[in-house]
């Protein structure tokens, strides 16, 4: 059957166009008011109503165990049909990774009551079949009073996951698993949402991909069922360890932390209840496929999760780290040309111009507006961008215009070719599912169909012959629909021209309607109105509001209810494969709004439709740090805000903050005031200043990304991750680190001219240098320091012990890459420093040659122990970089003797040393490195 539009009729969804007002059916965007059971005081408590399971047929091996779990009593059928028999598999996949899987023992492939996520869709990690005794994770179980299990850390005895005293509930539309947690625990992840970095212990984390502009504390675009758990322990005098809640720690005592990670490989809608002493994981289908990562550091957990399970993040092209400008209200190519000219006039760096849906012909994918965005003018504009070292990225939506068969504009070739290939999602009866979106009535590519990827490639390639894009921006791929159900099935012929431009809800009747509570029928799934309703963000908590309906059907019979959260994941993969053929040899650049665990191996992500206010500027930091955990380091937000009007002060502060996010783009909404940085004098000045620093640091950022791509390390980092033994940092998310070496403390409050920041590690001898003054900070350990920060300034600090490779800033990254190198060395308290550099051609998927340089500085000869201050560069690789070394700046230098480079004396006129600031600057190296800074190993001594 076709999902009914709604029983509520007082809301009208309408499209607005200069020449027409076209209505959809009454109530087309209003869902049923399904009672969210978490808020229903009369809801069945599955923990008390259900019997749990009893384990039998236990079989053990060196690598794990298997068992059969049978219902331990009468079925409760609380929110679906109880599964009477489950298969348990426990596998020690590696010494630091454990898998626990529960699936129904008998699944009839023709029975849609259960959908188990196939490996062909979301791969499982390969098992190394570790020996149980060698693993730092230990699985134990009991049948008292029903089956329960524990996961402990073998080396310390810490209980990481414990279901004792609870029951496992496993029904066809409701699965529940409860684990105890220690007091005031520290959990991070379970995204995507706008929330602080640490989740808290009285919070419900719903995960279900939703088209909803960045509300607080609820589910939005992405789906990442992974959390990081960090626990702090006081080191007692006898060498033992005692768990301590982070917020009660005493700064005078010594602590260590241990982290682990948990991933639930399940794509159904989920709801995770975080309560003071436990976590309850609920999902409305699928299986329990749990992965535990031992750590014990955050870095080890994150690397393991990415490298073994979801895939390492894609390496990005060098140009993607430049500055990007976008706007949803540029009416024609002339406007884009003027924007580029304005950036040039004000000498503000600009790397990439973006097009939102303005360029489309009546908002139809793969077609340009012939009047305002003609192909010939676009080709000339894009050619001009490319000649000047810039790029162009347009938006594409997965919503395809459905032509009115009786209208004058029925011919739409992308739709016709898709229909011929049979690639559209359908209703359960086989008719095409017709939703609504920007072009009017729309159909949706079915990524389960074997023809869809080829059709998608063909459409992008045909369009790309006229529009030479450098990447693709995918929006609306949650997947979004502006009406409930297949609303176009009965009304499509009433919309002759589909001149749809905008939509809104005229009235919302949900607040006065009664709640709908459904009763489960044994053996039957109600996917339109499931018996258990997750606390979904959309009106009525209805899964069909703002999205393709749960009963939309794929070619293999799978319904959207089971794979909704994977739509963008599959589309992103298809787009990545397409771009490898359209732009052969080059790394595809894809920006996707919706993401799933593993999307980072293909795509970047931006924070979605945020708001131009101070709160959302702050929330961009924990959002970015969370995506570091999810393996999507190429993250940024709509700088200066998307919805609403920004102002000069906010945009000034935001442009400076976003300069230290990997993806740096300014974008705003139709109807908002323009917010390109040249709109205000102070923002122009601040942007030029901070972009100069960002562009100079691009070699450092690019090297961090290569590390992430090859090892699963993070780029943006929480202070707690880099300084894991300081409990006071557990919830810090108003400042952050870029890699291990740079700390950023932004102003996040309106009207503020100072900011408070903490300097971690001081008590252990850490040194922090002011980036601008290049002098050591005189700060106290564990104390918030107030820092004067006038408008146009952002606090930036270098960690002692760092070597930062740099180049000269320029207006485009191409020119940065062709400029002389420099090094900024910040010595630690014991006179040492280290760093690294990675260089390649900046664009190829497969490199013919690469270059790596390791830097090491010390002030003591490691062999003789005598005083000898030197900086060493050890070079490996065959990539030919001919840029010379311009200068080396060394901070924290106590004294200077003879300065030599590979034994050659450096002239005194090329040396500057300030005894008060302890800064040594060595110039005059261009002549000594004419064939390239990295054509050989070298040593600089002073």
TrEMBL record:
Pfam families, per database record: Glyco_hydro_31_2nd (PF01055), Glyco_hydro_31_3rd (PF21365)
The organism's superkingdom is given as Eukaryota
An annotated GO BP: carbohydrate metabolic process
- Where does the Glycosyl hydrolase family 31 C-terminal domain start and stop, copy by copy? 712-804
**E.C. code:** 3.2.1.20
What InterPro entries does the record tag this protein with? Gal_mutarotase_sf_dom, GH, Glyco_hydro_31_AS, Glyco_hydro_31_C, Glyco_hydro_31_CS, Glyco_hydro_31_TIM, Glyco_hydro_b
Signal peptide boundaries: 1-20
Q: List the keywords (alphabetical).
A: Glycoprotein, Glycosidase, Hydrolase, Signal
Q: Does the keyword Hydrolase apply?
A: yes
Q: Which reactions appear under catalytic activity for this entry?
A: Hydrolysis of terminal, non-reducing (1->4)-linked alpha-D-glucose residues with release of alpha-D-glucose
Record-linked PANTHER family: ALPHA-GLUCOSIDASE, P-TYPE DOMAIN-CONTAINING PROTEIN
Name used for this protein in its record:
alpha-glucosidase
């Amino acid at each position: 059957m076709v999902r009914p539009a709604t029983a509520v009729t007082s809301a009208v969804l309408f499209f607005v166009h200069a020449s027409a007002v076209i209505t959809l059916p009454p109530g087309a965007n209003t869902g049923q008011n399904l009672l969210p059971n978490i808020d229903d005081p009369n809801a069945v408590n599955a923990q008390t109503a259900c019997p749990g399971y009893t384990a039998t047929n236990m079989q053990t091996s060196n690598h794990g165990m298997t068992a059969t779990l049978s219902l331990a009593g009468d079925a409760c059928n609380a929110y679906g049909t109880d599964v009477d028999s489950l298969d348990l598999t426990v596998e020690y996949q590696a010494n630091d990774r454990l898998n626990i899987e529960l699936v129904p023992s008998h699944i009839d492939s023709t029975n849609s009551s259960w959908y188990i996520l196939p490996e062909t869709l979301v791969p499982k990690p390969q098992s190394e079949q570790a020996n149980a005794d060698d693993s730092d994770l230990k699985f134990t179980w009991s049948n008292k009073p029903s089956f329960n299990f524990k996961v402990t850390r073998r080396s310390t005895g810490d209980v990481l996951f414990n279901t004792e005293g609870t029951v496992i509930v496993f029904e066809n539309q409701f699965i529940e698993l409860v684990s105890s947690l220690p007091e005031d625990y520290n959990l991070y992840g379970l995204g995507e949402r706008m929330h602080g970095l640490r989740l808290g212990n009285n919070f419900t984390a719903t995960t279900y991909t939703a088209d909803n502009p960045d509300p607080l504390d609820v589910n939005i675009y992405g789906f990442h069922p992974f959390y990081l758990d960090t626990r702090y322990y006081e080191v007692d005098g006898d060498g033992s360890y005692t768990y301590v809640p982070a917020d009660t720690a005493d700064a005078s005592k010594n602590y260590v932390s241990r982290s682990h990670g948990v991933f639930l490989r399940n794509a159904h809608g989920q709801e995770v209840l975080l309560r003071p002493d436990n976590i309850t994981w609920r999902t409305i289908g699928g299986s329990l496929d749990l992965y535990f990562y031992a750590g014990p550091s955050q870095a080890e957990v994150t690397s393991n999760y990415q490298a073994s399970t979801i895939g390492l993040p894609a390496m990005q092209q060098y140009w993607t780290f430049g500055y990007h400008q976008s706007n949803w209200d540029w009416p024609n190519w002339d406007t884009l040309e003027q924007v580029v000219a304005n950036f040039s006039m004000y000498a503000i760096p600009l790397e990439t111009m973006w097009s939102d849906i303005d360029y489309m012909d009546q908002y139809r994918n793969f077609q340009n507006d012939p009047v305002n965005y003609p192909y010939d003018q676009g080709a000339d504009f894009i050619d001009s961008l490319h000649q000047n070292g810039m790029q162009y990225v347009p938006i594409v939506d997965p919503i395809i215009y459905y032509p009115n068969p009786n209208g004058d504009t029925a011919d739409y070739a992308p739709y016709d070719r898709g229909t011929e290939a049979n690639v559209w999602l359908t209703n359960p009866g086989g008719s095409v599912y017709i939703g609504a979106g920007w072009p009017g009535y729309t159909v949706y590519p079915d990524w389960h169909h074997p023809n869809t990827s080829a059709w998608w490639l063909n459409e992008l390639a045909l369009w790309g012959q006229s529009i030479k894009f450098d990447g693709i921006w995918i929006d609306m791929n949650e997947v979004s629909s502006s009406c409930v159900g297949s609303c176009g099935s009965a009304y499509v012929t009433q919309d002759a021209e589909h001149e749809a431009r905008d939509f809104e809800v005229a009235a919302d009747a949900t607040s006065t309607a009664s709640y709908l509570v459904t009763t489960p029928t044994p053996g039957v799934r109600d996917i339109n109105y499931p018996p258990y309703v997750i606390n979904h963000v959309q009106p009525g908590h209805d899964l069909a509001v703002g999205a393709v309906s749960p009963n939309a059907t794929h070619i293999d019979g799978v319904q959207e209810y089971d794979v909704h959260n994977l739509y963008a994941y599959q589309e992103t993969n298809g787009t990545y494969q397409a771009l490898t053929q359209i732009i052969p040899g080059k790394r595809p650049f894809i920006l996707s709004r919706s993401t799933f665990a593993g999307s980072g191996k293909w795509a970047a992500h931006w924070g979605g439709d945020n708001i131009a206010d101070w709160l959302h500027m702050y929330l961009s930091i924990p959002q970015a740090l969370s995506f570091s955990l999810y393996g999507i380091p190429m993250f940024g937000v709509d700088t200066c805000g998307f919805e609403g009007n920004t102002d000069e002060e906010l945009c000034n502060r935001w442009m400076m903050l976003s300069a230290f996010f990997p993806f740096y783009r300014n974008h705003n909404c139709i109807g908002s005031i323009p917010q390109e940085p040249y709109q205000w004098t102070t923002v122009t000045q601040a942007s030029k200043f901070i972009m100069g620093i960002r562009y100079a640091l691009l070699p450092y950022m690019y090297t961090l990304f290569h590390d992430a791509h090859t090892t699963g390390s993070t780029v943006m980092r929480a202070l707690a991750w880099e300084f894991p033994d300081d409990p006071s940092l557990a919830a810090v998310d108003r400042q952050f680190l870029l890699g291990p070496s740079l700390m950023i403390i932004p102003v996040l409050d309106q009207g503020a001219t100072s900011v408070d920041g903490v300097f971690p590690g001081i008590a252990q001898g850490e040194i922090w240098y002011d980036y601008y003054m290049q002098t050591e900070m005189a700060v106290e350990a564990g104390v918030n320091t107030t820092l004067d920060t006038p408008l146009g300034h952002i606090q930036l600090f270098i960690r002692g012990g760092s070597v930062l490779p740099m180049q000269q800033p320029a207006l485009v990254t191409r020119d940065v890459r062709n400029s002389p190198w420099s090094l900024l060395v910040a010595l630690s308290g014991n006179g040492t420093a280290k760093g690294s550099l990675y260089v390649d051609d900046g664009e190829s998927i497969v490199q013919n040659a690469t270059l790596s340089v390791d830097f090491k500085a010390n002030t003591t000869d490691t062999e003789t122990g005598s005083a000898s201050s030197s900086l060493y560069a050890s070079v490996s690789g065959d990539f030919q970089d001919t840029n010379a070394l311009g200068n080396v700046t060394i901070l924290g230098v106590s004294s200077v003797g003879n300065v030599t480079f590979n034994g050659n004396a450096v002239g005194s006129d090329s040396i500057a040393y300030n005894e008060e600031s302890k800064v040594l600057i060595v110039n005059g190296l261009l002549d000594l490195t004419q064939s390239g800074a990295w054509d050989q190993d070298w040593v600089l001594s002073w």
